[in-house]
Amino acid sequence: MVTVEQLQAGIVLPIDKPRQWTSFQAVNKIKAVVRNTYGQRDASNAKAAPNGGLKKFKIGHAGTLDPLATGLLLVCLGKATKTIPTLQDGDKVYTGTFVLGATTPCYDLERPVDHYYPYEHITPELLQQTLPQFTGTIMQVPPMFSAVKISGQRAYEYARLDDPSVTIQPKPVNIYSFEITDFRPGTAAEYDDVIENVDVKAHHLYDNPLGTVPPHLPQADFRIHCGKGTYIRSIARDLGLALGSGAFLSALRREQIGSYSVADALRLDEVEAYLTR
Fold first, then answer.
1. Which residues are bridge partners to 164 per DSSP?
2. For residue 69, which of 35, 124, 198, 252 is within the disulfide window of CB 3.0 to 4.6 Å?
3. Which residues contact 55 (CB under 8 A, 6 or more apart)?
4. Nearest-angstrom CA–CA distance, 117 and 77
């Protein structure tokens, strides 16, 4: 069992965050598990509070994952919270899927499709020819639907106001590798019908991304190895533009942060067993 002393000295829990959980919710779930576990088992310990919880308990995470993203979330407990800035600076590896031929306001499935674009010209060969401009040190504009600060406010606060006068400045990010691991072509014959009959309000894609992506659109699976501060949603937007079309992110999974891998991560329902084994 991980003792109270070990916990307060600092441990890092690699967690496999499920879809539709915020990073904050995942941390709160672990906080509740830890308080419950150590309050019950160590109630006689001087460091345990009378109500069954720990008197002092530090917890935080290194690198937010969007609610619709899954994968590696590093939750730091005790003095390990001091390592959060260092962990956040580590390289990341992401896998996921881009949908080509359409856009959403937030570049992923949190909002419905707002525009459709031609995509018949997009081939695996065109994709491969386009990828080099997205490797190395590139300038990237973060999404408006993000936590980036603009004049002291979060960008998503301006995005909700739909204020076109507010913009985010580009910043340099490092993309070490960008691979297309699979390509599924769209159905060109359905394109005209979709453009003529689309009701964007009816195409809300939040509930079940893998099942509600417009089926006629092409999709490209990817693997990206990048440095800190990279927004994969922005890569989706910029890739669509570079292809002379549109694109958005339909699935995202963080596979690695520094030396930590999602292959070694715990599910949320495994945390208690891990701490008490």
1. none
2. 252
3. 47, 48, 49
4. 47
Band of residue 147 on the pLDDT scale cut at 50, 70, 90:
low
The residue ranges of DSSP E strands in the chain, in sequence order, are 11-17, 59-62, 70-77, 92-100, 102-103, 115-116, 136-140, 149-150, 153-154, 171-184, 219-226, 247-257, 260-261
* Tokens found for residue 103: 């856009």
Q: What is the pLDDT of residues 198-236, one digit of tens each?
A: 443 333 333 444 446 788 899 999 999 999 999 999 999
pTM confidence score: 0.84
Determine the 3-state secondary structure of 46 from DSSP.
coil
The residue among 74, 80, 97 whose CA lies nearest residue 213 is: 97
| Gap between the Cα atoms of 127 and 179, Å rounded | 10
Give the Cα separation of 76 and 60 in Å (integer): 5
